[in-house]
Guanine deaminase
Amino acid sequence: MTEKQKSFMKMAIDLSRSGMNEGKGGPFGCVIVKDEKVIGIGSNSVLATNDPTAHAEVVAIRDACKNLGHFQLDGCEVYTSCEPCPMCLGAIYWARPSKVFYANNKVDAAKAGFDDQFIYEEIELENQNRRIPFQELMRNEAKAVFEEWIEKENKTLY
Ligand SMILES: [Zn+2]
């Protein structure tokens, strides 16, 4: 671990504290780095923006991608003050950075009242057994659009 990497994580932790103290949301911060330069930052902003998806990682990914003018975080490192929840884990996989560093882990988060274990458990359940039931509807109509996508020329693959 280099001093520079420690300074990026310190920045993520500082963002977690300032966001919390400003009432933006929970104590979570995130910094995205490319070529040793910060290209995106975020703190949890769920309360400030009434956006349940405004976790620090998602806010930072949006900021970084906007600054890069690209939908992928190729060659980027993510520094997050806490091990990502399942939603952020998914967002990170879609953004495809090269590495993730986290400070607090899932157990620390659960102790602070942010327990996301139930989401991992829900993923394993059949649709009808989930707390929020999922039901298939109008598959054939939607499938027609996928078929159009498969046939579509000049599309951007991602
Ligand atoms: Zn999250």
